[in-house]
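Hi support team,

I submitted a single chain yesterday and got back a structure, but I'm not sure I'm reading the token output correctly. Could someone confirm the output below corresponds to the sequence I sent? I've pasted both exactly as they appear in my results page.

Thanks,
R.
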Amino acid sequence: MNNTAIFGIPTAWFLGNLWSLLVALAVLAAGWFLAGLVSGYVRSLLGTKLKRDATVGPLVSQIVRYAILFVTCIIVLGQFGVETASILAVLGAAGLAIALALQGTLSNIASGILLIFLRPFNVGDYIDADGIIGTVVEVGLFGTELRTHDGVFVFAPNSKLSNAKITNYSRGASRVVELKFNVPRSADIGRVRSEVQQGVVGDYVAADSQPEVLVDTLADATVTMVLRVRVNSRDWNMARADLQEKLKTVLDRAGGFAPPAQA
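Hi R., thanks for writing in. Yes, this is the structure output for that exact sequence:
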């Protein structure tokens, strides 16, 4: 077999299908561009229509993107004479095989949709899901991105989050900071309450909230008291640090509320 016989058939096929190849490449490029454009628009539109909710947009936009790419692939194959019914039949059989092989991946997709509908958390919430701790950055089609307090990136499979016990520290608008401290048993509780309440007032205390100072436990020589202050959920960590500092200042200034030494 000479070179003409070897290379003649591919060359003839290429020349005979040149127009179809050019159209297919154009459709593929247009579909890829359109998928990115439409998915970005859907993400932006959902963020605006849903009161700038950043949770739904990423997942829905990814579904739209893959759907457009799927249709694009069918159109490209159609340029080479492959019937749509045949394509769908092959894809159906391949899809079943892939579904059996990638059960975990499909479980992540189903779990991602479930998380969007049930809404145990939103983007920006600080959560603890059986040890997966961080602030939610994005809920994707296959997994959820989080970031810890020290800036570490965490990617958690959606299936693991959907089956976990989720503690959402940001769900409520406010949280309570609770601090315990000891004073001598002989201390004037009324004075302790008044000075601590006045001393911890600051930017983090909720406007409609009053700090509470209560007796927690009694011992032979000391009284354990508890300070409870309601603050904005997103400020909880900074508020706790600030309140501890203010409480220490009050206790130092009052000498721990010990009675004055007898002359």
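A quick pointer for reading it: The longest strand covers residues 174-184. Let us know if anything else looks off.

Best,
Support desk
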